[in-house]
Write a structure and sequence with these properties.
With 422 residues, the chain is mostly helical. 69% of the residues lie in helices and 0% in strands. It has 20 helices and no strands. Helix 1 packs across helix 3. The termini are far apart. The relative contact order is 0.07.
């Protein structure tokens, strides 16, 4: 099994007089630990309590207790285990005041929950529970991203191009419906898995994207989150070895991570694909992923994730930016647009069009999407790039300024700010 957890931060020694700066550093470390462990904690607790709200409350209370103790005592060597033991203790306290105490208490007392590094299976069960067909698709995905993967409401809203209030309402209603309908916590039988597969894949896809390039926060990427998504997708492929879309998504993720060493420079600045040092790419991982893609293509059941993987393979296998097969990429985006006719797919197709039909034609395609993507940062960043290619510098500057107002990722912000200073 691939370990997806980063090594725990070193145990800090409380220093007299460090003051606010020391506490802020510990709080940042606690936040990082919590982002890594929230999904595992929630999955472990839901498994035994069968109560989303209680599980999430206990996770939050454990974090509050960590913020009270860790600045004085130091971050424990196994922070995830500390949080889980704390949550377990708080669960016992809660259950003593509730009906069915004896039944649930026996489950908790009998359970050997000392660490959560092996909770991958629990999280996959929780994903399938959240993706029950009685819930609307967007609700399924929002709930899973929040409860299982630990994304914030703001991050989920950014993925959906929606408002935080709307996403929050979806999550609350979904949890209430799961309780009312007594939806079981389990991976469903094989016959039922197929009807939930689309939602499960969407969750893993959005989780990987958030880890690959964070929508907000202090860091440009959340590598552990991306690797968690890869590990869970691999687990799903083992459960459904003949499902081509699951394999396609796994190939897509692996191809993207194969470029990880070249995506940021020494100062942490984002390096665009055309400027990356391709000698840093993991060629072994690319060959292995490409081989998987060839095998899945023989199943002759194409889908959106397989097509995106094929596009990523075109980029990964090109020896240089100039040698990129843009005609093939443009055709693949055309097929993708028929299977997955979203505005973002059409935007990416227009980007590829620039290298086939020129920037003027591509800009026409992009401008058609203005009404649908006005609040999407990459729409304006793409317009700026095309306008610069057409030597329309003032318009390009205006587009970049608009993109900057919509961008929370620190590396993306630096990239746009550098363009604006030229």
């Amino acid at each position: 099994m691939i370990s997806t957890a980063a090594a725990p931060p070193p145990r800090p020694s409380p220093v007299e007089g460090e003051g606010d700066s020391s506490r802020a550093a510990v709080e940042d470390a606690v936040a990082n630990v919590f982002r890594e462990e929230a999904g595992r904690l929630t999955a472990a607790l839901v498994r035994f309590l069968n109560d989303f709200d209680l599980a999430e409350d206990l996770v939050q209370e454990s974090l509050i207790e960590a913020l009270q103790h860790w600045p004085k005592e130091g971050i424990p060597d196994r922070p995830g285990a500390w949080l889980l033991i704390t949550a377990r203790r708080k669960a016992l306290d809660r259950l003593r005041r509730q009906a069915k105490y004896d039944e649930k208490l026996s489950l908790l007392v009998a359970s050997q929950l000392h660490d959560i590094r092996g909770e991958g299976d629990n999280r996959l069960q929780l994903i399938f529970t959240c993706c029950h067909p009685s819930l609307a698709r967007e609700t399924q995905v929002a709930l899973t991203l929040r409860a299982v993967m630990g994304l914030t409401t703001r991050e989920i809203a950014s993925a959906f191009l929606s408002s935080e209030a709307t996403v929050a309402q979806r999550i609350v209603r979904a949890k209430q419906k799961i309780v009312r309908a007594s939806i079981p916590y389990r991976v469903p039988p094989t016959a039922e898995m197929a009807e939930r597969l689309g939602e499960v894949l969407a969750v893993l896809y959005l989780t990987f994207n958030e880890g690959y390039l964070a929508s907000s926060g202090a860091t440009a990427e959340r590598r552990n989150l991306a690797e968690d998504a890869v590990w869970l997708t691999n687990l799903l492929v083992r459960l459904m070895p003949d499902e081509p879309e699951a394999i396609g998504l796994l190939v897509l993720m692996r191809l993207q991570l194969a470029r990880a060493a070249a995506r940021f420079d020494g100062a942490g600045r984002l390096v665009l694909l055309q400027e990356q040092d391709r000698s840093l790419w993991d060629r072994s991982a690319i060959r292995e992923a490409a081989s998987m893609l060839e095998r899945v293509a023989r199943l002759r059941r194409p889908g959106p994730y397989q097509l995106q993987a094929a596009i990523a393979a075109c980029h990964a296998e090109a020896p240089s930016w100039e040698a990129t097969d843009w005609e093939q990429i443009f055709l693949l985006y055309g097929r993708l647009a028929t299977l997955w006719p979203t505005s973002v797919v059409r935007l990416n197709r227009a980007i590829a069009m620039q290298y086939v039909a020129g920037p003027a034609r591509a800009l026409e395609e992009v401008d058609v999407l203005a009404g649908e993507l006005d609040d999407y940062r990459l729409f304006h960043a793409t317009r700026a790039q095309l306008l610069r290619a057409l030597d329309r510098q003032e318009e390009a500057r205006t587009a970049d300024e608009r993109a900057l107002t919509l961008t929370r990722n620190p590396a993306e912000r630096v990239l746009i700010e550098e363009r604006l200073t030229i």
